[in-house]
């Protein structure tokens, strides 16, 4: 009985976390990405419950056109995938800035 209560509590908690991430809908509406890759322990451990509740929150809050083909993926990389993502964005921005300034001279 105790295990059932703990499991039910965990599921509710993970569902709630998925709903809290619903503000990703603003991101989806603005940028219309093809996919969102989630990292960290929570999505990896609770993939089914977490992704289902996040998907529901996005369908409820985002434009239908933006979420109709959106893929929610879970990264299986260990370490600091967020830092890697930020580094890639910075590198891309610097590359654009460098290339643009060289061609305009």
Provide an overview of this structure.
With 105 residues, this protein is mainly alpha-helical. It has two domains: 2-74, Nucleotidyltransferase, domain 5; 77-105. It has helices at 2-20, 24-31, 41-45, 47-61, 64-67, 81-104; strands at 35-38, 71-74. Strands 1-2 form a two-stranded parallel sheet. The longest helix is centred in the C-terminal third of the chain and has 24 residues, at 81-104. It is flat, with a radius of gyration of 18 Å. The mean pLDDT is 76.
Structural class: mainly alpha
Largest sheet: 2 strands, parallel
| Global outline | flat
* Proportion of helical residues: over 70%
Distance between the termini: 73 Å
Quick recap of the structure?
This protein is mainly alpha-helical and 105 residues long.
Topology record:
Blueprint: H1 2-20, H2 24-31, E1 35-38, H3 41-45, H4 47-61, H5 64-67, E2 71-74, H6 81-104
Parallel strand pairs: 1-2
Helix pairs in contact: 1-4, 2-4
What tags apply to this protein structure?
105 residues, two-stranded parallel sheet, 2 domains, Nucleotidyltransferase, domain 5
């Amino acid at each position: 009985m105790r295990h059932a209560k703990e499991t039910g509590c965990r599921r509710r908690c993970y569902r709630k976390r998925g709903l809290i991430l619903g503000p990703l809908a603003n991101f989806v509406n603005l940028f219309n990405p093809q996919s969102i890759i989630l990292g960290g322990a929570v999505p990896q451990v609770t993939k089914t419950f977490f992704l289902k509740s996040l998907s529901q929150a996005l369908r409820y809050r985002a434009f239908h056109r933006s979420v109709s083909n959106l893929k929610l993926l879970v990264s299986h990389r260990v370490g600091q995938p967020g830092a890697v993502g930020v580094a890639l964005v910075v590198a891309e921005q610097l590359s654009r800035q460098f290339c643009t300034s060289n061609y305009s001279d």
